[in-house]
From TrEMBL, chains A, B:
It is found in: Mitochondrion inner membrane. Its EC number is 1.6.5.9. This is NADH:ubiquinone reductase (non-electrogenic). GO terms for molecular function: NADH dehydrogenase (quinone) (non-electrogenic) activity. Belongs to the NADH dehydrogenase family. It is a peripheral membrane protein. The keyword NADP applies. It comes from Oryza brachyantha (malo sina). Its cofactor is FAD. It comes from the Eukaryota. Keywords: FAD, Flavoprotein, Membrane, Mitochondrion, Mitochondrion inner membrane, NAD, NADP, Oxidoreductase, Peroxisome, Transit peptide. The keyword Ribosomal protein does not apply.
């Protein structure tokens, strides 16, 4: 949306939220290292046309279906969670070009109780829920009348999934415990513990040396690493495949993402993994004027290319590519529906992996600059990586306003500690 | 709590929220001029003993009853609003000295529907609700399928009560409309309106010249002032005493405060207005070792003094006075229950009004430095007052962390406009 040429296109954005979440920094907001608004970018700041130009709009709604022949989508407004809110209503939007960029859903692998009892880490309201619950548990465990066993359960934070999100969240949490809980909740500091459960190896996409470093670092910060598969989740305990019961007060689920039920419902051919299948130019080949980018899309098997990982890095690069492609099509006179037949599309989309990063708390991070899991390249771990991690993400935050706030949040966390108001 | 001498006292704070709200700046957070956390001060930052000293605690609970003879209070934990939260449980806390500082409740004057449909402006979650609802209404009114009439209703913001809170909120709102809505929601900018309803005169405690200035300033910013009494509140309209129906999309109720049902339930003599009655030393005279300060307390008729207004200024001065008094009692050996009989309490509490301030939006404010409504003194209005208003409040914010954030919020609002993410 940011790079679309609004002199030629009218932009209509249909989304159930009016902001973009800068997900790589979301884990830091759960414990107050960063504030929620520092990682949320209003869409009107990303593409001002939606709030100003006569034919461009932001529509707070969910897309429910698409009619590629009629060139329209069906939508329903989102008004949940407000008192005296209007009842949702349905409407249609006509399009010349349609881009799906609707992301993925957290995977639960069909395990019972996950959706009811665990908290995901994908949206700002998830981070808010984690922060409120963590502070509630810390405070309740200090109130007279609670048993020792209940206190230990309340303050047991369990993270399922050892990918970058799970590891970064565990790192932030242990940092919060070492730095802030010891000072601000010193009555209960010996009761709080973090357990990270992973079926395979943590950070499996990283270099083996970095994985070992991360494991040592997490153990040193007091995180208990458990190799196991979760079988069942109940309201205050989960059960592992070896029968072990793990009582918890906070359960965060970060085992990766899969195709959403909306994506599954779409009448398009799918890539391996059930995402919207696209060709080399990110077009949905069975219909006209439809494109898909980000976590909701994947190369069709017929392209001979692998489905790209569900990373911010991929989505960003695809977004930029597609904006250029659409601007090119528009300038060549193919901007309207059903009329781009004779336009030369130029080079296909090629993804070049720049590397991966993850922080493990306590001013330590990993930077893996290899292009793929098998190739050779630079990999670093430690304070310098942590510095690179922070600097790199600071430059990726979209607006200057949020860059300023991220920097100031980091500064005040360093100077004053994290904010523990439960609001 | 801040000034209590923790070398002699153990401090136990029982409260349903773990932070203090800096209410004078709360109205600014509803539209994003300030962020919520900039006006919330965690109690552990105000009195660190509650989180560190072995006998001092913060207890997330509501006090439900007091037994002055046994020197105990009954409490119940507060766990509402979380999924899988513990069921609330009851417990008792014993005290040597008991201080009631539990504030007041918003007055509804028994008008039907106020609690169900209006939003008060007393807590951070009220400001969050207002901000979410305002942004929701702005976005919904831009979605196809809404009628012109419904659009006008959704974007009609009604404020009932023309005291400082109602006026400041109306001012912030009109400032938000002039500066941010015109830019960020330009499709609907001609539909949004603010109406301020007051039964008598706005800002009745201020100098007549300042009142006139405020009235002109509000009208100039587009606020419609209505003299009237609300008779009935329904889910999307309210009815005035002259029969006029006022449709609204957002209704903020700020008609002042009265004694809470908890205060009414306490077995103590009451001051005029139903607050906990206190003597000149802020003691509850019918029992031993009980004190009351702030909005929940008032001088007994027998003292011959007027009940003080429900202002932050009064509460702050009483808190400081009482901390000194309790420290004095403790040092004289009277810190325990039932043993302060022979201590000379020193001078009684005397309140000296320093003046009142209110902002009316668009860099304008009122400063009234008269000591009472009848006396003479300095009163100012305009940009200089606005500057005094901001500087004065900036110095009153308790922690350096929040002072920094308030200043930076003001700066970024000036530079980048207000944040319109609905999170």
């Amino acid at each position: 949306m940011k790079d679309l040429d609004t002199t030629g296109y009218e932009v209509v954005c249909v989304s159930p939220r009016n902001h973009m979440v800068f997900t790589p920094l979301l884990a830091s907001t759960c414990v107050g290292t960063l504030e929620f608004r520092s990682v949320a970018e209003p869409l009107a700041r990303i593409q001002p046309a939606v709030s100003k130009s006569p034919g461009s709009y932001f529509l707070l709604a969910r897309c429910t279906a698409v009619d590629p022949d009629a060139h329209t989508i069906d939508c329903e407004t989102v008004t949940e969670g407000e008192k005296d809110a209007l009842k949702p209503w349905k409407f249609k939007v006509a399009y010349d070009k349609l881009v799906f960029a609707c992301g993925a859903e957290a995977s639960t692998f069909g395990i019972r109780g996950v959706t009811d009892h665990a908290i995901f880490l994908r949206e700002v309201h998830h981070a808010q829920e984690i922060r409120r619950k963590l502070l509630l548990n810390l405070m309740l465990s200090d109130v007279p009348g609670i048993s020792e066993e209940e206190k230990r359960r309340l303050l047991h934070c369990v993270v399922v999934g050892g990918g970058p999100t799970g590891v970064e969240f565990s790192g932030e949490l242990s940092d919060f415990i070492i730095r802030d809980v010891k000072q601000r909740y010193s009555h209960v500091k010996d009761y709080i513990h973090v357990t990270l459960i992973e079926a395979n190896e943590i950070l499996s996409s990283f270099d083996v040396r970095l994985r070992q470093y991360a494991t040592n670092q997490l153990i040193k910060s007091g995180v208990r690493l458990v190799r196991g598969i979760v079988k069942d989740v109940q309201s205050n305990k989960l059960i592992l495949d070896n029968g072990e019961e793990v009582p918890y007060g906070l359960l965060v689920w970060s085992t990766g993402v899969g195709a959403s039920s909306f994506v599954k419902s779409l009448p398009f051919p799918k890539s391996p993994g059930g995402r919207i299948g696209v060709d080399e130019w990110l077009r949905v080949p069975s219909v006209r004027d439809v494109f898909a980018i980000g976590d909701c899309s994947g190369f069709l098997e017929s392209t001979g290319k692998d489905v790209l990982p569900a990373l911010a890095q991929v989505a960003e690069r695809q977004g930029k590519y597609l904006a250029r492609l659409l601007n090119h099509i528009m300038k060549a006179g193919g901007g309207h529906a059903n009329c781009e037949i004779n336009v030369d599309l130029g080079p296909a989309f090629v993804y070049k992996h720049l590397g991966s990063m993850a922080t493990v708390g306590r001013y330590k991070a990993l930077v893996d600059l290899r292009q793929s899991k098998e190739s050779r390249g630079i990999s670093l771990a430690g304070f310098v990586s942590w510095f690179i991690w922070r600097s790199a993400y600071l430059t990726r935050v979209i607006s200057w306003r949020n860059r300023l706030y991220v920097a100031i949040n980091w500064l005040t966390t360093l100077l004053f500690g994290r904010d523990i108001s439960r609001i």
